[in-house]
Input
Amino acid sequence: MELSVEKRKTIALTFDADWAPDYVLQHLFSLLNRHGIRATFFLTNPIEIEIPSNIEIGIHPDFRMTSPQGSDYNSIIDQMLTWFPNAGGVRNHCWHWDDSLYELFPAKGIEYDSSLFLPLHPGLLPTTAYGKLIRFPVWWTDNLHLYEKFALDRVSIPRFDTNGLKVMIFHPLKVYLNPSSFDAGKKSSILPTTNPTQEQLESLRNPGVGLDTFFNELCSYLTQNGNQSYTLGELKDEYLNDSFNSLDI
Ligand SMILES: [Zn+2]
Output
């Protein structure tokens, strides 16, 4: 049986918070709200701003040796679920993966993962292996877009207009700083460790065409073309429903 995600262009906007300050997340929440777009945010740390109803929250664990979240899989996941008890999904920082996570995440109540990168592949589908965890491969990232020098002033990504799963990752701080090149974008990843003030970040913002321009173009494109963005939780439910139906055939 064909899955629903195969029959249409299934876009899912997602965001990896990577310790972005609250006002940066607020900037993104407001933009998405204005366009009526649903999205999934994978958070790295507790936040003190209200999460709007169009935003789904997942966790973004950092399993590297230097993680500020804990020292092993169990303690890091438990800590993050204390912060975000309703999180049903995960994306690991820096694409970290380990076979034991297939079992560990569902044991902690996490139903889906999106820590797998298959850039610009056509016809992507959710996958499962060794149990219940549903994995959503990622189709595009803002880093790849800048690296490949795709257009920033309009929506023009190869194979964008084809059917299949298109999970897209933006990094909020990167969007906020609006870089126009891959090298300029790289600088944003170390910024949160320096606790920049909003004024300091403002001075680093590119005033010309950049990633924020593209993000706004994409939001307008989605609303004007009737292409909604799904949350990964919605696609997870749909996948389970499709699988359930296929048992009847
Ligand atoms: Zn990350």
The chain has one domain: 4-246. The mean pLDDT is 92. DSSP finds nine helices and nine strands in the chain.
